[in-house]
Amino acid sequence: MANVQRAVEGLSAAGCTDVLTSSSPDPLAVPPAIFESAVACAQCNSISHYGGIVACLERERDVTGVYVPVSSYVGPPQCVHLASVKGMSTTHRPSFREDMRIEVDVVSNSGHRWIKVKATTARNLELEAAALDVNGATPFTDMLLALIECSKRTCLPHRRTPQVAVVLLHPPPLVLRKFFAEHNVFWAPLSEDCGVATPHHRMQAQLPHAAVTQSATTWFPPLTLSPAVICLDTTALVTLCSQSCYVDGLPYSVRMERLAPFRVLQEQQRKEVDECSAVVAALEPALRLHTAWYTSEALEQVMRQALLLQGDDAAAETTPSSAVKLHGQVFPTGLILPIKLDWLAPLEVAARERSCDATDGSTHQCITTTAATTTATPAVVPLDESSLLVECSDLIGRDAASVLSSLQRRPNWIMADVTYEEFKWILETIAGPQEVARAARLLRLVSVVDTTFLRDSMRSRGDCEGSNGAPSTTGRGTAASRSSSPPPPLFTFVEYLRLSGKVSLRNKFVFGLADAVNAIMVTSNEQMIHAAREQGVHIEACFHPCRSLTEQKMYGLQRRHGPESPPAVTL
Question: Which regions of 119-162 does DSSP assign to beta strands (E)?
């Protein structure tokens, strides 16, 4: 019972699941997930192994699992280069079999670190090292190699793979240390008189007896994983503009009555008032947390650096200079597209005129907007907007008045070119005047990014499913699309996704862009994220409640003439 309670406390402190919610004095009155993991720890055959598990729970952050079978991580197979301890080729090459059962003792850092606990005596470690030196392999090292191979099949966000680490009761002998360094396995002893060895990415074969350097720390360093960019999809853009999220003098009861024929929209309005304010409580905090300010040139450079990630397989198989050249062949001249928003001013005027001509114009008269393109009109109700968008617009306005255009900064907010086209279609057809005005401010804050490099990459891999073989409609091309060059390097694991009812080609471009440029995806499309995870691909995302454009329906405005659907997305 004491072991169970200690494991419960360790899991709770590590943040493995929700905190305790029961006020019962019973020490076992805990959430089931914590209790089940704690029992699994307490039932460990070795008390030393159990102690190592609990030590990991106490020291690691963002623990997501204990005793996790790695067979559940089903990413696409990737090439794994193995070498012997002594740096020479060897015929012993164990491979990960689908039926091989391997458990990761602790998964931490939100899935980015896999830890195995080796609970054995110092004498047994010496015997393990001797067997490794003579035979070139042991069951323990075979298991680690299989675990490494499986980790390289795991598709974490931004082309990352899990870091494999080993916790030992005692410092390992030199032969084991060299094995860990050769295969980039981190290790840490539980004894306090020793530091943590960090792996050498390039072990010098001509110096087989070189000492393995140790750091001054006594545990694994935390993995710093922070997105550099924020990518907004159509759901986020629409929610930031939706009339359901703002006040305009129309009573709540009247809104609900007019939205009654549209049950989904009515339910969204109810949730906005009764449960969660999508903009104030969800979107604005997420944007404030991850927003950084760059010049356009600096933002472009940040995204290019993410695309040229040195750790990817394509770069590893070539020299650095040729890898950069290979990547550069598929890049457009500029990732950030120059977008003209001159279509917004006529749209705002037309939206206001239709609003004034509506049958209930006495209630919903010409609304004064704060967008730069609008003209002054008599104000009945001031435009309610996102305070964050107003703050960002003011900062850009002050920058424009004081610095050169090349030095003007923008928030690190981006959208895919296909998202821009879809959002433009939405505004031109079903947006009300206030929603158009909010969109005018929003579009001046978000940079539009060319996804041609993703389109070319998918096309080169024969990913034509769902495209009906139609040519690209963007009119933009790169060297890769005009030549018979080899397939471009992989930019994102999202390219692996199979098309389905929840994974569309549009989604692959939008979510693939975010993953490729180290951006966090701000979206309400949880189905896409879950569908990708079912295929073994993990995407970094921040969710918000879904809200639709409702102003036309609230005020009985007619839908504007336009295409019945947004522009098609093809390869």
Answer: none
Picking from 202, 225, 248, the residue at the C-terminal end of a domain is 225
Tokens describing residue 91: 């015929």
Q: Which residues of the chain have pLDDT under 50?
A: 1, 17-30, 72-74, 77-96, 193-217, 310-324, 359-379, 464-484
Question: How far lies 501's CA from each of 69, 466, 496, 498, 507, in Å?
Answer: 29, 11, 16, 10, 11
Phi and psi (nearest 5°) for 463? -85, 75
Burial 380-397 (b: 16+ CB within 10 A, else e): eeebebbebbeebbebbe
What is the 8-class DSSP label of residue 37?
H
Q: How many domains does the chain have?
A: 2
| Cα distances (Å, whole numbers) of residue 7 to 18, 62, 114, 348 | 15, 16, 19, 60
- What sign for the dihedral angle of Cα 475, 478, 479, 485? negative
**Within a domain: 32:** no
Quick check: 64 and 16 in contact, CB under 8 A?
yes
Q: Select from 154, 206, 200 the least CA-distant residue to 181.
A: 200
Q: Which of 173, 178, 43, 36 is nearest to 118 (CA)?
A: 173
User: d(Cα 15, Cα 36) in Å, to the nearest integer?
Assistant: 15
Residue 164 pairs in a beta bridge with: 114
* Domain coverage including residue 330: 229-554
For residue 511, the SS3 value is helix
- Chain centroid to CA 313: how far? 20
pLDDT tens profile 12-57: 655 554 433 334 444 444 455 555 665 666 556 678 888 888 889 8
| pTM for the structure as a whole | 0.77
